[in-house]
């Protein structure tokens, strides 16, 4: 008996060995990824940043630096109720569900069930007739041709995952899940930047409203003086008509600026997620002075550390890792799939006979699936997976290039605007002195009040330009914060830490060099 069992086990082992020999070769000749992940040099932005590298990264609470409670409230509402944030959160749920579904199908799985059916059994004619003394005596096989086959069963299956197919799929799904989480952080940053930018535009519109009202007062005075002088024959009709034309243009500018305020408020209401008219309740912004918000320098190791500070770069890297995991999973499919399957149950023709020892049935043993005739499909799939890796890595490299470009562009523009703001401040000071001189000359009777008002109009024009430049500077500051990741840090993301697998991805990654051979 023992010899028989030994021969059976040896036979099964031989079958398994033959199967592994036939199917244990990955057909990947000529297939590989053609794109390699970009590794930015530590001095990639040295010409732009210069020696200004003693600062820190933005914090997640960077909006609070403007010290405007209304702005903080708007941002908080949007992050809770804006549809873009709800979509991003829902996508995390979808990715998590896919991960959990796959996990439930791996390792040890089980099934159980019961069936009861009504069936009519066949009655072939003369199938059981007997002959006695030359006489044929019919015999019925069944007294009742109908039966109720019944079964009660349970089964277990264990996937050994000898070649790492399921492990690779799990890694890929984890990376996709984490990418969805990082996408939510990117949506958070984009929404915050959009609200803050609009809020700056609203602040500028209110400042321009004040400026236009002052200009209207001065323009009306000049218009009245010129009209009176024309009536007395002291001036020609050209100056009076030109003053009327300028005043009409000023009124049109005021109307357009009022519309700008309302439209900006409505757009802020839409972004808040509480409806457009929520914006009509927004009061005039009360932002901190620009002098209090000067940059304290850029972070050290900016090009390298930026890879883990920009959510779009981190998400692109995670999707590249998911693509590599798909390659690993497809490679594993070239090898035999070995499972251990066990089945036990009760089967009988009637429910009454179900719970008897004769109804007991069962089996246990390995189940081997060989991809011998599926190699062409798997090779084609592997080629497609490598192409997907190229796409994902190209998007990753593109995200890095764009991020470095954004930082360089924002720094360049910000430095230019800083100089323009300083020059404009000097222009405003000069215009202010001109008004003071004109007022003194008017008091001495050397010039008319009209000349003082014209100097006031020049000063107001310079102040309007100053407001424009200061708003532009604020916006560039926010854009630089966004280019630096807006306080995002993958090491501090809420929830479980981002999964790390293959640590050979440059600086912050996990793709091994074997995929690029």
UniProtKB/TrEMBL annotation:
PROSITE patterns: PROKAR_LIPOPROTEIN. It comes from the Bacteria. The keyword Membrane applies. Belongs to the outer membrane factor (OMF) (TC 1.B.17) family. Residues 1-23 form the signal peptide. The keyword Lipoprotein applies. Gene3D superfamilies: Outer membrane efflux proteins (OEP). It comes from Paraburkholderia phenazinium. Keywords: Lipoprotein, Membrane, Palmitate, Signal, Transmembrane, Transmembrane beta strand. It is a lipid-anchor. It is found in: Cell membrane; Membrane. GO terms for cellular component: plasma membrane. The lineage of its organism: Bacteria, Pseudomonadati, Pseudomonadota, Betaproteobacteria, Burkholderiales. This is Efflux transporter, outer membrane factor (OMF) lipoprotein, NodT family. GO terms for molecular function: efflux transmembrane transporter activity.
